[in-house]
Fold:
Amino acid sequence: MPATIGVLALQGAVARHVHAIERLGLVAVEVRTADQLDRVDALVLPGGESTTMSKLLDANQLFEPVSARLADGMPALGTCAGMILLAGEVLDGRPDQRCFGAIDIAVRRNAFGRQVDSFEADISLSGLDEAPVHAVFIRAPAVERVGEGVHVLAEVGGRPVACRQGDVIVTSFHPELSDDLRVHELFVRQVGAAS
Ligand code: GLN
Structure:
């Protein structure tokens, strides 16, 4: 049976992730409840607004279940706001904003400056073949501290923008906005290894 990949669907850029997962021949499930979470082998946390997602995770009684699955080793891919949610520490967050601490990094929200809220860059990402990834950054977070067990997969201007610790992969950018499936593929390979 193909792996079932959940996409946290409380807010944000859900549909493009669902599409990318389906293009890879896997089953995508939008996750809004703990029951739906129970059915997935791995979870994508999309871009959007991390403060809003944090609130909705609490309101939908989903924060603790997701946290428990992550502690139990569920593979996770967090893009942009999803990266913020998976981080161990959030800088420039709202005081009531929560994060899962699934990867030992500190991230600063909206770190690339107000004037350049959004930009695109061709970056090389370790673990993929040589062709660069066209990365779209939208009010993106930057990684300001990387813990010992964390591998930096890509950098922009000397700042990490993609990291991995075990089965958790995070990107500051939005891989789902391009037609390039390689970041999702890299993640899905983890799931294969885990199941
Ligand atoms: N700035 C947003 C936040 O703090 C993230 C932006 C995005 O996901 N594109 O959640």
The longest strand covers residues 159-165. Residues 182-194 form the longest helix (13 residues). DSSP finds six helices and twelve strands in the chain. The chain has a mean pLDDT of 94.
